[in-house]
């Protein structure tokens, strides 16, 4: 099974050309589970056209439209098999009321295996917002606990945080937060090669925001992830990471797909044999 995540960068730059590049890339990568961030509601059908994927945008699930969704976009998921929305979680707080991105959690029926929980978050983007991100990853743990299945949960998205930040360390079992702990596998750690930067000064589309938000030369970070649920939470199943790489990390005819690179991960997923009785 192949999982892909990409921040689409809403309608900035040459959106029509970028949308075409992303659509063609999705056809070539042939992912089974896709998490997309910063997607405008009317972009999603164009991105998925001809891919055979079933898509849901947060605008289809939310009771009210978060502010700036029509400008910065929202979260979307796409799956090879028709999915059911389990929850749309609003992660805004009083100190980050302007973030329009919800977390989508869907159940996806995998042939011969049963349902898997697929979670697509987008966390706070500001460099000084780690306290917000800590609260958000704790909420992700609660969401997983509410909806997880026997198969290991898959969580993919733009976490806006380096691997050594508290929130990512919490998700990967390296530290506790608020007296709590959890564990997910970071797919890149298992099968990726090199630093895996996904927001980089090497990408011309990222240059403007890097100058606005960072103002330091040569800025490169790994902030987009695919996480896989732990055996501690899923003792009767497995999701082995067989490959991990960046996606949409080169221009096509001079067009860069986004200001982010994507992450693509190949998984072997299954159920363990039942133990003999007695």
From TrEMBL:
Region (Disordered): 53-73
Superkingdom of this protein's organism: Bacteria
GO terms, molecular function: endonuclease activity; exonuclease activity; metal ion binding
Keywords on record: DNA damage, DNA repair, Endonuclease, Exonuclease, Hydrolase, Magnesium, Metal-binding, Nuclease
Limits of the Endonuclease/exonuclease/phosphatase domain: 4-260
SUPFAM superfamilies for the chain: DNase I-like
Name of the protein in its database record: Endonuclease/exonuclease/phosphatase family protein
Cofactors: Mn(2+); Mg(2+)
Gene Ontology terms: biological process: DNA repair
Name of a matching Pfam family: Exo_endo_phos
């Amino acid at each position: 099974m192949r999982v892909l995540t990409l921040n689409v960068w809403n309608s900035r730059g040459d959106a029509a050309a970028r949308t075409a590049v992303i659509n063609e890339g999705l056809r070539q990568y042939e992912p089974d589970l896709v998490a997309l961030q910063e997607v405008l509601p009317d972009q999603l059908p164009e991105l998925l056209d001809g891919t055979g994927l079933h898509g849901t945008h947060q605008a289809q699930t939310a009771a009210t439209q978060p502010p700036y969704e029509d400008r910065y976009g929202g979260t979307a998921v796409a799956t090879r098999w028709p999915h059911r929305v389990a929850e749309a979680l609003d992660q805004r707080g009083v100190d980050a009321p302007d973030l329009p991105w919800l977390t989508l959690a869907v159940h996806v029926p995998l042939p011969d295996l049963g349902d898997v929980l697929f979670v697509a978050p987008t966390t706070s983007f500001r460099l000084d917002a780690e306290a917000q991100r800590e609260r958000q990853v704790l909420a992700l743990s609660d969401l997983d606990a509410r909806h997880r299945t026997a198969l290991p949960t898959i969580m993919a998205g733009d976490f806006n945080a380096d691997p050594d930040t508290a929130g990512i360390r919490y998700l990967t079992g390296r530290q506790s937060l608020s007296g709590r702990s959890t564990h997910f596998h970071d797919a890149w750690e298992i099968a990726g090669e090199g630093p895996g930067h996904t927001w980089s000064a090497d990408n011309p589309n990222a240059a403007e925001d890097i100058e606005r938000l960072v103002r330091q030369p040569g800025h490169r970070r790994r902030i987009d992830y695919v996480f896989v649920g732990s055996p501690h939470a899923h003792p009767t199943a497995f999701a082995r990471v067989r490959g991990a790489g960046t996606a949409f990390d080169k221009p096509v005819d001079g067009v860069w797909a986004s200001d982010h690179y994507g992450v693509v991960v190949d998984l072997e997923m299954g159920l363990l044999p039942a133990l003999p009785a007695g």
